[in-house]
Amino acid sequence: MKTYHDIAADGGSDVIGQVAEQMARLQDRLAQVDHVVAVMSGKGGVGKSTVTAVLSEALTALEYRIGVVDADINGPSMARMTGVRRHTPIPDGGGMQPAVSATGVKVMSMDLFLPQDATAVLWHAPTQNHAYTWRPMVEMAALRELIADTAWGTLDIMLADLPPGSDRLPNLADLVPDLSGAVVVTGPTAVSQMVVARSITAATQVADVPLIGIVENMATYRCPSCGHQERFLAPASGGESLGEAHGIPFLGRIPFDPRLALAADDGEPFLARHADSPAGHAIMALAARIQHYLYQ
What we know:
The chain has about 300 residues and is of the alpha/beta class. It has a single domain, classed as 3-Layer(aba) Sandwich (Rossmann fold). The protein has 10 helices and 11 strands. It has helices spanning about 15-30, 50-60, 80, 135-150, 170-175, 190-205, 240-245, 260-265, 270-275, 280-295; strands at about 35-40, 65-70, 90, 95, 100, 105-110, 155-160, 180-185, 210-220, 230, 250-255. The strands form 2 sheets. Strands 1, 2, 5, 6, 7, 8, 9, 10 and 11 form a 9-stranded mixed beta sheet that branches. Helix 2 (about 50-60) packs across helix 10, helix 5 packs parallel to helix 6 (about 190-205) and helix 6 runs parallel beside helix 7. The chain starts with 14 loop residues before the first helix and ends with a helix.
């Protein structure tokens, strides 16, 4: 496959120069970030973005400087989940200013640039014919800009919330070769674990990115009346057996809690109100394990 450097003539657009300049800016930004951690699943609907949002809150509670980049260009949700949807990105001499959540997390997401929640991300072109050949390239260019053109400042950890798809982590690794690792989120069902397994294969065999571990979301359910807790929808093995099959550490289970979804919908910090809940304890334990991996 040809790259930008194989272009014989670019009609005066200086494509190679533009890409090189932007990659240089990206590296300058990331030079102030100690660790970049991807949060991935490969499967939609497992609560990956919710996990990213509450994990950013938990790591901030552990006194780390946290940034979140929403790598889901077409289905961005991180701005709403972190309560910064109304922020207007303002450029200055140092780059675009990120939004800052109530807990101090710096956030950059495509939905900060969309005028309404129902606005779709559409790419303008003379024709939409055969658009599948160029849309992925445009999406990756947009993600590169989100990271490179944002004035993140100094961060301890940047979390990248990836969209579904087994190719998403390899794509991010192309932009950020020094990824510290990836957290894999799965659901309790066999179907979700089957799809997530494919993303694990792509991560290890294609991207060669270290996997910090697997998180099983919505794993158990606690009765609000009696407090009894049991497995939710699936047998007891779940994410733990998935980790064993691929030689990846199991980071823990987050129980199903409808207040997690409500907090994400309202852009409210979940741990600020429910730190003592089973889900709150599980999230803080997850953050502590990631902290140990990055700073042991």
